[in-house]
Amino acid sequence: MSDEVLRSDRPPESGATRTGEFKPTLQLGTDHDLCAGCGEPLALRTILESIEELGLAQRTIGVIGIGCYTALTSLMDLDLIQALHGRAPSLATGAKRMLPDRLFFTLQGDGDMANEGLQEVIHAAARGENITCVLLNNGVFGETGGHMTATTVLGQRTKNTLEGRDATQHGYPIQMVDLLAPLGGTAYAARGSVHDASGVVKTKVMMRRAFETQMRGEGFSIVEILTMCPTGWFVPTAKGPGYLNEVLGAVHVTGEWKRDGRLLRGAEPEAPNEAKERGAV
Amino acid sequence: MSRRFMQGSEAIAEAAIAAGCRFFAGYPMTPFTELLEHFAAKLPAEGGVCVNAESELEAIGMAWGAVATGARAATGSTGQGLSLMQESISELVRAELPLVLFNLARGQGDYYQATRGGGHGDYRHLVLAPVDLTEAVQLTQLAFDRAECWRNPVLVYGDYLLAHTAEAVAIEPVAFDPLPSKDWAVDGSRSGSGSPRNLNPIGMVPGKKGIEPERFWKRLQAKHEAMAAAEARWEAESTDDAELLVVAFGSVARFTRFAVRELRAEGARVGHFRPVTLWPFPSEALAEAARGVKRVAVLEQNAGQMIDDVRLALEGRVKVVAIGGISSDDAGFGVGPMLEPERIRARVGAALAGREVQP
Amino acid sequence: MSQRGHVVIDIERCKGCELCIPACPPQVLRMTGEHNRIGAHYPELLSGCTGCRACWLVCPDFCFEVWQFDEPGAPGARPGE
After folding, report:
1. pLDDT by residue (tens digit) across B148-164?
2. In chain A, which residues have their Cβ closer than 8 Å to the Cβ of B186?
3. Which pTM value belongs to this model?
């Protein structure tokens, strides 16, 4: 390391190849209003890149829940259906039944999926609906400013659990992937985390596998992504990744929970060749 | 087309399928259950899908997804189930999605629900109230046509009698004018194009941050005003020299109309007015029909709901009296003793004579 | 120091979250004391970038574009003035 500051306002003049563009091809721009240090745009990138790489760009429809991530829809170059809070799996069900050869994913937060919409996602999984539900889990209602959800971990401080979530008063967190993986209709279930670069790469592997599972017609797939919400956790942005990994990650364990219909319970997904080649980590 | 003897539920399902409905989702509830059964039995053979939803919330969500792809889709329930669907109905109006809804209700207590709604915000949708199976077959097809014409949900409001009464009926296809193209429907084809579609209820535009709620809501208001001006439907008879005008809707109007015709044949100066659309309420037509009458008598099978719209239409110019009321069988399905023709006739006769009718 | 990679930083999109700083394996990103148009500090690039894309992977605001030099040791981006 040296203290020599390089110009970083333009690409090299020659002799270099661009290996990372500002935004994925399927993203309309880079301007969004989510908070500094938010993990949700990172999750969006894994979704958009996976769709592009699988060559499904013109066959994909997103069904969007309600939370901070709803604002990201302005960035998505995808046909979208906006759902009510919690209801995205049902909308995706009806739409997929009409267009069975398209790729359908839902984008939902933990408030959306684990609170208001728990019944919807469980039934969609049990029916083996050929859709992919994506859960962005940060353990709080971010959009309202940091309130307890069904995935908030014990001890976690939120605006309505000021002394920390206490099981005697507020009950226990629901681990969504653990809950959905054993259901007969679930073909693929995994939980990733975007707390660091390696986590982002692994999450994208999961996303691709879920989409591939759907396109093979094998049934329901769920990818849960742990995302930072420093605003809703009341921690500095730089401490977000550590808080996510150590506090939420200790309860919501990352890994693959079901693959090819086989229960794995938190196995590490092996890194794909493509990721190794790019030397991302 | 030949007539067949069938229940209202079967006739409605067949009419919907004849109109091109290819998706249905529902949750069993009396007296709606048979409609679900008939869709489940008939849709697969037509290349359609019927999903046995685990709740009314999910049923309307599934139908919402199906209709968003441009398919003709429907859902429904009984009033209680429609209560659960209200949040989605108000959002479907704002997302401008042409979903068809059926309320096969227990009596007529859901008039407010149907016309005012229990959802949030400013929203309106057509409400069609068939008087019998023949009209139900027509209005079911009309519902799909009007829904797509306006890109707005349409509710068909029937009851136990409509759902369960068997009559000889033909599923005559109704011819409609060509509809605008469905380029709003999502099929994934605009993904990756730089100008994708986003079917949402808040006026979001792809590629653009933020929303313009006031502009969006005002545009919807203008559409709903145009709907109100264009879509009122009614049936009026014997109103020219009437002293008493009886107003009723749906299955109940079949009884009142019968009683009015009998009384007319006996020389009584009584007329009959039946709103076919509950929203928009045919206010101007009612005001016209009530011109010169001494009294307007509203017979509805509830504690008094449509009577508000009747009074609003007449703006205090004519005395309006309630001659209906709550009347139910012991199971609560709304098949009450009030619906016996002689009782209906007695109530109309009392109103004609200027006597009060006890509910 | 020879450059294996290079990043272009869109400083106006940066919200100053600092996630890229610890994510960078060769530690060649450093927050400046400068403010952009929204008043956020943003990172600057020191020499020694490997083009590994870690910053690109963790940036929530899509501020990084990553380049890899075709031949290690190529002259690459010129140092700042």
Report:
1. 999 999 999 999 999 99
2. 61, 79-81, 95
3. 0.95
